[in-house]
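Backbone geometry:
***
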Amino acid sequence: MKKNAILEEILNEVDKHPEIMSRREAMKYLTVSPLAASILASATVGAASASASSAKGKIVIVGGGLAGMSTAARLNNTLSNADITVIEPDPISVSYQPGQTLVGAGLWDLSDITYKRDDFLPSGVKLIKGSVTAFNPENNSVTVDGSKEVSYDQMIIATGLMLNYGAVKGLDGVITSSGKDNAAVKNSGIGKDGLHSIYFQDGASATWKGIEELVAKAKAHKGPEKLQAVFTHPNTPIKCGGAPKKIMYLTNARLEEAGVRDKVELTFYPNGGGMFGIKDYHTAIVQQFKDRGFKWHYKHNLVEVDQASKIAVFDHHWEEKGAFDDDLGEYKMVVKHERVEVPYDFMHVTPPMKAPDVVGSSAVGSGKGWVPVNKETLQHVKFQNVWCLGDVAAVPMGKTGGSARKQYKVVVDNLIATMEGKSLPSKYDGYTVCPLITSIGTVMLAEFNWASKKPGSGVNAASFPLDPTKERWIWWLLKVYALKPMTIHGMLAGRA
């Protein structure tokens, strides 16, 4: 897609919400901003800076979502004799998942984020519309749908992860983010009577209806006690770690817009002991919570939902000093637990997440399910012709589309180098980006990498010369208008 077409896609997104920003305002910003220039340029540059490689070999990509299909496109752009097969059962696997938060807040419709897998299959790349049911890396093959064996010279695992609602007592189902096969989850109560989740498409649509119901309930509420809106964050790694807070901020914005914010108490229950793993962002978010009158309770993991009574049950956990260990010269730390019951009128559940069972139980998986790779080269720790990226990779942090955008270039560079008999040239530095929506019209652009967690490093991964801990409308322009065109028309083409 040419640059002017990418620009038009961005402006089309702006036109959908003139109450937030006019096309003229957007154009003024886009013509002077280095941020906008970088977005437009990244979506139009060539896939590889070096000349095309003539390396040969059969490449199988397990998973045709954003990470897998972008990798297929970039390989196809770079290899002159490409033999690439993508295995993916979901017909809408390339749908724009980051947009589910905006669907949940009533800013976008499902049609704004739904894209068909087959429309983004690169020319010449083969597609198997099925599921891998077994990995056999010792024989360089996988089994599809229990019967068809597919061999490879190089394999890339990009399956994504599973939403494990069934890990919470009172809920049910294990689904993907598109979640079209979601009957068990919906039948268990998600999407109705105040119980919601934006993490699958239908759930996101239902969340907006739930927020509208909460607003209506608040308008009719006469009692002295406030209505309770509860937001959870589980005890597992999750994709888009900022999403549980984003939907809270947006619920707050809709309540303020309706003039009923004072009738609802919003409380965040994260399993961890902080708002964010990077100190500067944690501090900024705590202040944002204080400014908005939010409440929060750390180290609370949702373990049960009593839908009949509308009670959320949390495991509150903490550590206390135990007996003194004379040999180590320190106290043993003992984990304590407390059952906490919280009534809710509206609750957003962020489900526990896990690797697909077929991955975790196989030779390419690990005890925790995730695919063990060298965190920099993304090469499997046991099998040199196996690579992994995206949500299923066992790397610190990094379960975001922004991470995949960096990772897929590393995988392509290193895989081709391996096919050519060369050393691995590229390293992933852990870059992750979380555009944290803080209201309708403002975003805090949290960028970080592994080095960001080192003492004194600060927010060292920021791409632009602006304080990334500040909420800004220009980041809203990036998040809501620019990232989707860049992703759909740039990254899925193997260019951005």
Q: What stands out?
A: Residues 45-161+356-432+478-493 form a domain with the FAD/NAD(P)-binding domain fold (CATH 3.50.50.60). The chain has two domains: 45-161+356-432+478-493, 163-353. The chain has a mean pLDDT of 91. The chain has twelve helices and 21 strands.
